[in-house]
């Protein structure tokens, strides 16, 4: 049985979201990811990015993602969430992109669910008007190039 303080913390955490952009955004706000999650190790805030993300980036990892990264687990576990804040050169927030590992969701792409939110939390839209959530073709095709690292660009998940 966990100590009382740990049990209270676990009880106050909301359940992981379903695979809708609205649920993911609501979850991120409920957990206060900017204040309670770790920054990507050795990156800090506003590190240099590249297209299609912003020129400046800040990346956050929930506990499951951080543990997989720091222990060189090889892959992220179900429930891992990576949030990337995408900034313009003047440090204005342009978008928030999310990778969320959901067991069985998208087996052809390592079970990753993707979203791209505008700063107000609404979902960004592709030129064809489709919301950028779920099995986003652009996200999948780009991140597939890092399939040997569980679709992660920012750092290695293996000890090699």
Considering the chains and any ligands shown, give keywords for the structure.
single chain; 160 residues; alpha+beta; Chalcone isomerase; seven-stranded antiparallel sheet; 5 helices; 24% helix
Structure description:
Helix content is 24%, strand content 21%. It is built from five helices and seven strands. The protein starts with a helix and ends in a 17-residue tail after the last helix. It is an alpha+beta fold and 160 residues long. Strands 1, 2, 3, 4, 5, 6 and 7 form a seven-stranded antiparallel β-sheet that branches. The protein has helices spanning 4-12, 21-31, 33-36, 63-70, 137-143, and strands spanning 38-39, 47-48, 56-61, 81-87, 93-101, 112-117, 133-134.
